[in-house]
């Protein structure tokens, strides 16, 4: 095996593996180093996303939703079943099978594109040299013209609730429960906390989410966040805002192990809650442990992310960084697009990435999805805008499917009508928002969407109607104001 490559990628999550494949497609000799091991101790590609993130969480969200439908909603359609039961180990085994299949898919793509897949740890040395220690501990030094760092992120740990992987778990442990706990506490009502809280609520746990901030989903458009909060409450999710966890204690009682959580509530009063499982979901941090030699030349920013410019170049020549380990939202697709951009830049192309149009999804039911700026951001930017909203309650397909909770909100520039943002809580929100993302990439106005013929009956008609509503032209709803 030669130790000289055109490109070495460290990390095979969605940022790294996509960069590696694109670079190989462009004719480069590429190696990708990955240190992740599966439950059997074998090297595995795919990173957080495929192994303990996007894919396994969605597998459990889908299984738990099917259970919930059969258990609670089939009767609305006139369908009766016998007793609907849940086999948690079978559900987890199905999730594991999907993870294996998808992670194996990455290795298959590496093979097909002639990317050299190396399992073990990579460390960037000076002058684009990389120390590679394989899973057996054998060390060698590799060289490359370009190195792409894609080492991702890990869950943030907090001293007030130390992970014991038994009673107190992080997002990874919450994908491995062997039975449905009676009471689940979640610290942090952010994206991951809401998704994991939803899984166990649907399976019958009593879930309480303790969130330090007083604003629910502060990064989302607040009209949509408020609508979502109302829907979640109806579903039985107990979301307590302004509640900061200050301590936790695992106790062994007659019932088994449980954890007593102490927190200060909105009024500043101390309170406690007892849970069978506690999931800590207080965010993720960029992961650079052991990645950089002192003389690598790569700098970190004040948040511990690898410092990069808009093109993902680091402070060391020929060294790039992509994905969760650099600034910006910690989203798989954001990292993948950065990976493509960097591979194409290395190949001499002039690719840039549009950071203004990165969709963002929360996979609760119904899902929340957004693209572009929120109304709060546009207001703060001082731009004149018009808003159109449309409820799924007025969409025939949504009513027929019993999926009429939620709404579409479209925001367009008041003078140019160019779409500035779209925020949805409702059925198929991620796919609907993606339609708007494409329109935005082409510089669409709200009127352009309003003039497009949409199939009937579809959920997407809510997007058309919200676009029409921007200028007071909605058909299936009285318009507050007719502008043209
Ligand atoms: P990672 O996927 O973290 O991959 C980095 C890889 O680098 C890892 O495999 C790691 O082992 C490896 N590595 C690190 N250091 C070294 C080293 N020195 N040598 C060798 N290898 C190294 N995002 C979405 O967009 N949609 C979702 O629905 C979604 N759901 C999520 C659900 C959960 C429960 C979690 C935890 C995350 C979710 N995310 C989701 C976030 C998403 O998983 C991340 O944004 C994404 O995985 C980041 O990709 P990455 O390639 O930058 O890093
Ligand atoms: P996210 O970054 O979307 O994963 O969300 C993590 C959430 O955890 C944030 O909304 C934080 O406010 C919240 N959080 C962090 N620490 C605590 C704590 N000690 N108690 C309650 N919530 C917390």
Provide structural commentary.
With 484 residues, the protein is of the alpha/beta class. It folds into 3 domains: 4-155 and 285-346, FAD/NAD(P)-binding domain (3-Layer(bba) Sandwich), CATH 3.50.50.60; 168-282, FAD/NAD(P)-binding domain, CATH 3.50.50.60; 366-470, 2-Layer Sandwich (Enolase-like, domain 1), CATH 3.30.390.30. 30% of the residues lie in helices and 26% in strands. The protein contains 12 helices and 21 strands. It has a 5-stranded mixed β-barrel. Bound molecules: flavin-adenine dinucleotide and adenosine monophosphate.
Which descriptors would you attach to this protein?
484 residues; binds adenosine monophosphate; 21 strands; FAD/NAD(P)-binding domain; alpha/beta; Enolase-like, domain 1; five-stranded mixed beta barrel; 3 domains
Give me the secondary-structure topology.
Elements: E1 4-10, H1 14-25, E2 30-34, H2 47-52, H3 54-73, H4 88-112, E3 116-124, E4 129-134, E5 139-149, E6 153-155, E7 168-169, E8 183-187, H5 191-202, E9 206-211, H6 222-235, E10 238-241, E11 244-253, E12 256-264, E13 270-275, E14 277-280, E15 284-286, E16 319-321, H7 332-346, E17 360-362, E18 367-372, H8 375-381, E19 385-391, H9 396-400, E20 407-413, E21 419-426, H10 429-441, H11 446-451, H12 461-470
Parallel strand pairs: 1-2, 1-5, 2-3, 5-16, 7-14, 8-9, 8-14, 9-10
Antiparallel strand pairs: 3-4, 4-5, 6-15, 11-12, 12-13, 17-18, 18-21, 19-20, 20-21
Helix pairs in contact: 1-7, 3-4, 3-5
Bound molecules: flavin-adenine dinucleotide (FAD) and adenosine monophosphate.
């Amino acid at each position: 095996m030669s130790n000289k490559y055109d490109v070495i990628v460290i990390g095979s999550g969605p940022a790294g593996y996509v960069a590696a494949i694109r670079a190989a497609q462009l004719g480069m000799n590429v190696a990708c180093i990955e240190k992740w091991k599966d439950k059997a101790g074998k090297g595995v590609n795919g990173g957080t996303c495929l192994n303990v993130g996007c894919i396994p969480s969605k597998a459990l969200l889908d299984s738990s939703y099917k259970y919930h439908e059969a258990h609670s909603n089939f009767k609305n359609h006139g369908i009766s079943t016998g007793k609907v039961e849940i086999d948690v180990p079978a559900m987890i085994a199905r999730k594991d099978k999907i993870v294996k299949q998808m992670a194996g898919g990455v290795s298959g793509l590496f093979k097909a594109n002639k990317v050299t897949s190396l399992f073990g740890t990579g460390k960037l040395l000076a002058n684009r040299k990389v120390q590679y220690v394989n899973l057996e501990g054998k060390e060698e030094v590799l060289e490359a013209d370009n190195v792409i760092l894609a080492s991702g992120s890990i869950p943030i740990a907090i001293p007030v609730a130390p992970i014991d992987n038994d009673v107190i778990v992080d997002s990874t442990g919450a994908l491995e429960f062997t039975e449905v706990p009676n009471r689940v506490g979640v610290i942090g009502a952010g994206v991951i906390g809401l998704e994991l809280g939803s899984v166990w609520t649907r399976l019958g746990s009593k879930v309480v989410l303790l969130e330090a901030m007083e604003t629910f989903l502060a990064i989302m458009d607040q009209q949509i966040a408020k609508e979502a909060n109302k829907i979640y409450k109806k579903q039985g999710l107990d979301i307590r805002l302004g509640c900061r966890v200050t301590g936790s204690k695992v106790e062994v009682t007659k019932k088994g192990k449980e954890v007593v959580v102490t927190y200060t509530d909105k009024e500043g009063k101390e309170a406690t809650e007892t849970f069978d499982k506690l999931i800590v979901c207080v965010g993720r941090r960029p992961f650079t442990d052991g990645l950089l030699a002192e003389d690598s030349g790569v700098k970190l920013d004040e948040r511990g992310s690898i410092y990069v410019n808009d093109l993902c170049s680091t402070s060391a020549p020929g060294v790039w960084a992509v994905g969760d380990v650099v600034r910006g939202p910690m989203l798989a697709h954001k990292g993948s697009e950065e990976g493509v951009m960097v591979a194409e830049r290395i190949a001499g192309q002039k690719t840039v990435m549009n950071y203004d149009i990165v969709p963002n999804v929360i996979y609760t039911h119904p899902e929340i999805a957004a693209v572009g700026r929120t109304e709060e951001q546009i207001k703060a930017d001082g731009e004149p805008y018009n808003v159109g909203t449309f409820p799924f309650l007025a969409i025939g397909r949504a009513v027929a499917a019993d999926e009429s909770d939620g709404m579409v909100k479209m925001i367009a520039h008041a003078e140019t009508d160019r779409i500035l943002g779209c925020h949805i809580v409702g059925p198929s929100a991620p796919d609907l928002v993606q339609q708007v993302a494409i329109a935005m990439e082409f510089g669409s106005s709200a009127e352009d969407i309003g003039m497009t013929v949409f199939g009937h009956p579809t959920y997407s008609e809510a997007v058309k109607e919200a676009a029409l509503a921007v200028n007071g032209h909605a058909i299936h709803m009285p318009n507050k104001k007719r502008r043209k």
